[in-house]
Design brief:
This protein is α+β, with helices and mostly antiparallel strands and about 400 residues long. The protein has helices at about 35-40, 60-70, 105-115, 120-125, 125-140, 150-155, 155-165, 170-180, 190-210, 220-225, 230-260, 265-270, 275-285, 315-320, 355-370, and strands spanning about 45, 55-60, 75, 75-80, 90, 145, 290-295, 300, 305, 310-315, 375, 400. The protein has 15 helices and twelve strands. The longest helix is centred in the middle third of the chain and has 31 residues, at about 230-260.
Length: about 400
């Protein structure tokens, strides 16, 4: 059964503006209040509850796409997800292209796009299938209940991204720990800086070694192409490493939990429903209220006059549940025709690794559900620990039995 959004009073910040709703009361649904906002005021002035930053909250599918595709909105921003890190304009490190605008963003993006095509990702299919099978073998040998996150959802994408980049999997504990801090909304700036610095130092050593002996993995290929400095390679590798395993790991954990509570949809995924990955991405929208932008000039969006220097925030979860996007958007339907969802972003910053993400989800979920047809959660839904303070939504653990 589809879960219904729950209406709740809107708290106000110090400025008197209502706060951006951040908390999900159901792990599968957007924060309460976003649906009502989308219907009444698809672009509205709000305040971030964490740091008091005033911004424009955008919740309709059409306006979110317009905002994310408009070059007058800058991506060179940082902060906004912690009381100690107010939203501000930043000068990103060379190579950190996710926080860059044209033309610098386009230069890096063009260098990398050819390495993430559907064809290139499909070459990884046999290796991904092998990684998944090995993790399932290891799960089967463990006493039950088994934590699906620790034993499957996290190791699979971590192994895959290590394979793609050419990074030893033995380094996983270091980059997984750093990633947890980087996306933790309760971490202090000092903790985040330390995590970033430690990971950067580790990657610098790896890149130096690969300059001596480049291999056929992505970092080695980029070194041979010769267009990037070591500093740029460190930042690019860090971005791909963190984004490449955090997102897919949380989709596997939360996606499995969702399917366990929708057995009819679980059966379709087990049988190989071709659109399942995209529907799960749309429905869960685990990367939601982190899409900050800054107006580089005066502009108009949805009839609202926005001044240069003002901030905007696109709610991908609200946009993906917009009735204008698809029929009955609050219903999970893995046979739904492909939609123009924005779970992977939109415009020039749309997720570079989207083809890999879909492939991993397809292979891993089908294999998991076929190997363990009796799979079920070992605890009630309300006892599953949700990542409430993380910029990427998901679950910390998921005990399962079969």
């Amino acid at each position: 059964m589809p879960s219904e959004p729950v209406a709740c009073p809107e708290p106000a910040g110090p400025s008197g503006l209502s706060e951006v709703p951040l908390r999900r009361t159901c792990p599968f649904d957007p924060p309460p209040g976003l649906a009502e906002l989308r219907a009444a005021e698809p672009i509205t002035r709000r305040v971030m509850p964490l740091d008091g930053t005033e911004l424009w909250l955008v919740t309709s599918h059409d306006l979110v796409r317009r905002m994310l595709a408009d070059p007058r909105w800058s991506s060179s921003l940082d902060g906004g997800l912690s009381p100690e890190q107010p939203l501000h304009v930043t000068q990103p490190e060379p190579g950190m292209f996710i926080s860059m605008d044209a033309p610098e963003h386009g230069r890096y993006r063009r260098m990398l796009t050819a390495h993430f095509t559907v064809q290139r990702m499909n070459r990884l299919r046999p290796r991904i299938e092998q990684i998944v099978a090995e993790r399932l073998d290891a799960m089967e040998r463990l006493p039950r209940p088994v934590d699906l996150v620790a034993e499957f959802a996290l190791p699979v994408p971590s192994l895959v991204i290590c394979e793609l980049l050419g990074m030893p999997y033995e380094d996983r504990a270091e980059f997984q720990a750093a990633a947890r801090v980087i996306v933790d909304m309760t971490a202090s700036p000092e903790q985040i800086d330390a995590a970033v610095a430690g990971l950067a130092a580790h990657l610098a050593k790896l890149i130096a070694a690969k300059r001596e002996e480049p291999d056929d993995a992505l970092i080695g290929e980029l070194i041979r192409e010769g267009a990037l400095t070591d500093g740029e390679l460190v930042q690019i590798s860090m971005l791909l490493l963190v984004a490449g395993h955090e997102t897919t790991a949380n989709m596997l954990g939360l996606g499995t939990l969702l399917l366990l509570h929708h057995p009819d949809q679980l059966a379709l995924v087990r049988e190989g429903a071709p659109g399942a990955a995209d529907e799960l991405l749309r429905y869960l929208s685990i990367v939601d209220l982190v899409m900050f932008r800054g107006a580089k000039e005066d502009l108009t969006l949805g009839g609202q006059e926005i001044k240069a220097g003002e901030f905007g925030l696109a709610s991908l979860a609200a946009a993906n549940r917009d009735p204008a996007l698809c029929e009955d958007p609050d219903r999970l339907d893995v046979t739904r025709p492909k939609t123009a969802h924005v779970a992977l972003g939109f415009g020039p910053h749309q997720c570079l690794g989207q083809n890999l993400a879909r492939l991993e989800l397809e292979i891993a979920l089908q294999a998991l559900l076929r190997r363990f047809p009796g799979l079920r959660a070992a605890v009630p839904l309300e006892e599953v620990p949700v990542r409430e303070n993380a910029a990427i939504h998901g679950v910390h653990s998921l005990p399962v039995i079969w």
